[in-house]
Design goal:
The protein is an alpha/beta fold. About 50% of the residues lie in helices and about 10% in strands. The longest helix is centred in the first third of the chain and has 33 residues.
Length: about 500
């Protein structure tokens, strides 16, 4: 028998073969780009056009990996293999080889199609965000499977081939489904917290513009001879307690429709008024220590604990919450967006029992001296807008905060949303005052004091949690911390 008689041509027509090769090549290039982006931890290009389109949300989710490997890497292997096999499909070969080749290609095409249906379903039903790059690769997989099913060459028939493809794609889906969500965060305990408590001093960290309110001299000024001069060292030190380091904040001009002022305590107000007005106001005697104690939240610094007053920082929730912790984040950071979803889940579980001091820390070098690398364009302005909304209307802050995290927001869209919430004139006045920028400076100062580095950061009483935190892990942490009563 002659050689040509013993050989047959490939199982596909020339037109179908060309279509298969182009689809495999397209899917291979897209998968290779997504794999490179995952390995280099680089965002993909042109993927944040609407509330529905958000590649970073999809590509940083649990479902974007299988056994901690980005799914785009196995996709590269599949499409590269199929493209290599298609190189033999148009050449003469023994009939047995052609049947085996047709079987392997058909199963591979059907596997790509079933996997495409799985990942499209995840994006639509679970993640509720779409990645156009991923959808383009999945579309290629679906078209490949359709061409395989409509081919006249089926060595085992449609049902067995489709079943084999479903079995392979189902194995991938099962592994993803059963794989536990990997921890993407690190718990850091400062050295001073590893030893028994020794009454170490704390540092009080204040926001800008917290100067005390002083009534006008024309109203409260007493005769010169009636106002005793203060002694040089009139403030007694508490016996047995190390003095706390005072962090002097910069002064902010402007505030909530005016300077951010804090009224004097009853004891200080009485001391100011009594010399001139005691006979008219009939003020009761004030006993030192009667003033209500300001609630403070203690977080770990690199050298000593730091205290924050939740009433004077951007807050999600109530100052009366049973447990309050601190979150540092960047509105353009995908891992911060994931943690924000977990924080929302914690609010759903614990309700008014918890509150969060929410401190935006832009990773843009323009306003963060400790930021490394480039990127995060617009982060500074988004953070200033968030602080401005909080200062204009604290009741609108949580809504605006969550809106910023729903997807990647442009500065123009964020400003329009802020104007809709608090009013254009009010927002403009607040932004022009410079106060939001000074708050961001203080957030950066605190970011440096707690070790800078990665965000998001969740700061509890004796430990920091750095990196993206899933809902169940966060709720477990909060449950443990609530039993320790870290906020005092």
């Amino acid at each position: 028998m002659s050689i040509p008689a013993a050989l047959t041509v490939g199982p596909f027509s020339s037109g179908r073969l060309l279509s298969l090769r182009l689809l495999c090549l397209t899917a291979l290039l897209i998968s290779a780009y997504l794999a490179w982006s995952a390995i280099q931890m680089q965002p993909v290009i042109g993927c944040s056009g609407s509330d529905l389109i958000d590649c970073e949300h999809v590509l940083n989710s649990h479902w974007s990996k299988v056994v901690e490997i980005p799914v785009s890497i196995p996709a590269v292997g599949l499409y590269a293999t199929l493209l290599g096999l298609l190189a033999f499909a148009g050449r003469p070969a023994p009939p047995a080889f052609q049947r085996l080749l047709c079987l392997v290609l058909s199963v591979g095409f059907l596997t790509a199609g079933w996997a495409a249906l799985w990942f499209i379903g995840l994006q639509v039903l679970v993640l509720r965000h779409l990645c156009p790059w991923c959808l383009a690769a999945h579309a290629c997989g679906l078209l490949l499977s359709m061409l395989a099913l409509t081919s006249s060459v089926r060595p085992l028939g449609r049902v067995p081939v489709a079943g084999l493809g479903l079995l392979l794609a189902g194995g991938l889906a099962t592994v993803q489904w059963l794989s536990p969500v990997a921890a993407t965060f690190e718990v850091i305990v400062p050295d001073y917290a590893r030893v028994p408590a020794g009454g170490e001093a704390t540092e009080e960290f204040a926001p800008p513009g917290t100067e005390e309110f002083t009534p006008p001299d024309s109203i409260l000024a007493a005769p010169a001879e009636a106002v005793p001069a203060a002694a040089p060292d009139a403030t007694p030190a508490t016996q047995g307690t190390p003095a706390a380091e005072q962090f002097e904040p910069p002064t902010v001009q402007g505030g909530f429709r005016g300077p951010v002022l804090r009224p004097l305590s009853p004891l200080a107000l009485s001391a100011t008024l009594r010399p001139a007005w005691s006979s008219l106001l009939l003020l009761p005697p004030v006993v030192p220590g009667d003033e209500p104690e300001t609630r403070k939240v203690t977080i770990p610094g690199t050298a000593k604990p730091i205290e924050l007053d939740p009433a004077v920082w951007p807050l999600l929730g109530s100052t009366e919450a049973k447990f309050i912790f601190v979150e540092m984040f960047d509105y353009t950071c995908p891992y911060c967006r994931e943690t924000n979803q977990s924080v929302r889940g914690a609010f759903e579980r614990f309700g008014d029992e918890i509150a969060v001091i929410a401190l935006p820390v832009p990773l843009e070098q323009k306003c963060n001296r400790a930021a490394s690398g480039s990127g995060h364009a617009g982060s500074c302005e988004l953070s200033r807008l968030a602080v401005a909304v909080w200062r204009c209307d604290r009741g609108k802050f949580r809504e605006y905060h969550d809106w910023l995290f729903d997807r990647n927001r442009t500065v123009a869209a964020a400003r329009r949303q802020a104007e809709d919430l608090v009013g254009r004139d009010r927002l403009r006045t607040e932004m022009d005052s410079g106060a939001p920028g000074k708050y961001i400076e203080r957030h950066v100062d605190l970011y440096v004091k707690v070790g800078s580095g990665t965000v998001p950061k969740l700061l509890f009483s004796g430990r920091s949690v750095v990196g993206a935190v899933q809902k169940e892990a966060l709720c477990s942490m909060i449950s443990r911390e609530m039993g320790q009563t870290p906020a005092k």
